[in-house]
Write a structure and sequence with these properties.
This protein is α/β, with parallel strands linked by helices. The protein has nine helices and 13 strands. The longest helix has 13 residues.
């Protein structure tokens, strides 16, 4: 979450971002930055200020105490325990407006958090790299590297930002991935996601996912709902699915892919495994339909982002 404070004359006088769990929220950080200049000014925040006592006091109370005259937020808080900030502020005579850049915020920085708050399960992004004919490896199983250096660097940056990265046991056996976020020189970054391996069988003792570079959770199930329930219990909000075609197919069939992030390399293989395995589709009318959010270049690769079509 983010917040900026504008002074009486509209100048930027303070800004802040929500700190890790248990730390101050964005509004409090911005008010501290602004000091007395917040009085009579405007607070612009991505999410409706909270009105409940949790690990931190209500942000609505902090805004009242600071004497702000106006609050503008993008998206209402869907959490019934935290919602109600608007009513508290308006009761105190503060002007409140909502909806500013709501779509941009909801599909951007708050996408995963809003999904978790509304559904109770983590937001799942299925990321894969493939050739133009949809192959994720050659007929002999080789796959390094299908995607470009630029695409791989972008994925490592994405790994740093998410809560968990998930693969199936088959991927561990076939590729022995480290599932860590690394810099261009191969250095493991300080911040690492939880590594999640899905599958009922044991993992090789020497598997890279069992080293001490990051925490690993082995979920002995093949049920996507059980997987996400276990991750929700751990507070995982944003999950990156990097598994092979079998795991991706299971999540697609369960309707639990919330975003597809595809890196398409300008190459053809003609044979070899495809990106998506069986997903409950036997006829074209049953296809899992997605709406394209964006198409951009990532080095020589094409990066496609898409979300499920909703009725």
């Amino acid at each position: 979450m983010g917040c900026v404070i504008l002074g009486r004359d509209g100048d930027l006088v303070g800004m802040g971002a929500t700190q890790p769990p248990g730390g101050p929220h964005a509004e409090v950080m911005a008010l501290q930055d602004a000091g007395d200049k917040a009085r009579g000014g405007t607070a612009v925040v991505t999410l409706e200020p909270c009105a409940h006592h949790g690990r931190t006091p209500p942000c609505a109370d902090a805004l009242k105490a600071a004497g702000v005259a106006r609050v503008v937020f993008a998206v209402a808080d869907p959490n019934p325990q935290a919602a109600g900030g608007r009513a508290v502020l308006e009761a105190a005579g503060i002007t409140v407006e909502s909806g500013l850049l709501a779509d941009e915020v909801a599909q951007g920085p708050l996408r995963a958090w809003l999904h978790f708050a509304r559904s109770g399960r983590p937001h799942v992004t299925w990321k894969y790299a493939a050739t133009l004919d949809g192959r994720v490896a050659a007929a002999d199983g080789t796959s390094r590297w299908i995607s470009s250096e630029e695409s791989r660097a972008e994925v490592h940056d994405l790994r740093r930002k998410i809560d968990a990265i998930m693969v199936g046991r088959g991927t561990v056996l076939a590729d022995d991935p480290a599932l860590t976020a690394r810099d261009a020189d191969g250095t493991t970054r300080a911040t690492q996601p939880l590594r999640v391996v899905v599958g009922t069988g044991d993992l090789p003792a020497a598997a890279k996912v069992l080293d001490d570079s990051a925490e690993t959770l082995h979920l002995r199930t093949r049920d996507p709902a059980e997987v996400l329930a276990a991750l929700a219990e751990r507070g995982m909000v944003d999950v990156l699915l990097e598994g092979g075609p079998t795991l991706a197919g299971a999540f697609a069939e369960a309707g639990m892919i919330d975003r597809v992030l595809a890196y398409l390399a300008p190459a053809l293989l003609g044979a070899g495994p495809v990106a998506l395995g069986a997903s409950g589709v036997s006829t074209i009318t049953d296809a899992h339909r997605f709406a394209v959010e964006g198409v951009t270049m990532c080095g020589p690769d094409v990066r496609v982002s898409a979300v499920p079509v909703t009725d």
